[in-house]
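Shapes recur. One chain:

:::
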Amino acid sequence: MLNKFTSDEVARYYRAACIAELQALKPGNVHLFADGHGMTIHDFIKSADASAVVISQSGLGVGERIYAAVEATNKAVGINTNLGVILLCAPLIHAALNGEGKLTLQQKLLNVLNTLTVGDAVLTSKAIVLANPAGLGQSDVHDVRLHPKVTLLEVMHSAQYKDRIAWQYANQFADIIGFGIKCYNDAWEKWQNKAWATTALYLNFLGKYPDTHVVRKYGEAVADIVRLEAQEIEADFKSADNPKLLQKSLMNWDVSLKKRGINPGTSADLTVATILAQTLIGN
C-alpha cells in the first residue's frame, strides 16, 4: 500500500529520478558521458532543480502542476528539456499526494486520470505551446494551439496512437507501472547497479516501440530503424555479466545517433517516470 507523501518527499523523489536518468548511459540522449543536440547535462540538472518544487506543490491540479513546471524550466534554461518528463510525472505526483491512504499508487492514478478536467487540458496545452517541442505540428482533433473543449484525458485518448506519452494517459500508464518497473527491477537484481539498471530500462523502451519523438521529427521508417538497432544493443547488454564491457558499443551507438540528429526523447521520458513510479511504490 502507498502512504501519503509530503510535497518535500515527492519533490526529492522526482529530482532523484531525473538525476538517475542523467547518470545512466543512454545512447542518443544527453547523459553524464556526453552532451548532445545543443544541450548539456547542466541544462537538465537545472531543469530538474527548477521543476521539482513546483510540480510537487500541494493543492494544485494536474494541469497546474504541468504548466508551473514547464514555466519554471523555461525560466531556468530557456529550452525544452523536460516536457515529456513533466507530462508523465505530474499525474504520478498528484496520485502520490492525494487520495485515500489505503489505495495503491495504481488505484490512485486511475482516479486521477478519470477526474482530469477541461481546465487541466487548457493549462497543459498552454504548457506544450510554451515548451514548443520539436516536431510539434497541427492536429485536426484537439490541436494544442486551440482552446480545448474536452478533458485532458480525452485529449490524450485522441493522440495516443501517435504519441507514447499520450498513450500512458489513455492506458493507465501500463508501460510504466507494468513493463517498465519489471525491466528496471530485473536489471537491478542482476547487476545491483542503478545506472546500469537505468540503461537497461531505456534500451528496453527503445527496442519495444518506435520512439514517438523520433517519429515526429524523422518519420516512422527512421524510428523503426532505431528500434531495431536498440534491440541488437539490448540483447548484448542483457546477456552481459559485466555491462561495463558494453560501454564502448553503447558510446559508439551514441555517437552514431547524434551524428544523425536522432534523440530518442520519449524513451528517456518513460525512463524517468518509471524510476519515479518505482520509488513511490517502494516507499
Notes: The chain has two domains: 7-171+272-282, 178-268. The first helix runs from residue 7 to 22. Residues 7-171+272-282 form one domain.
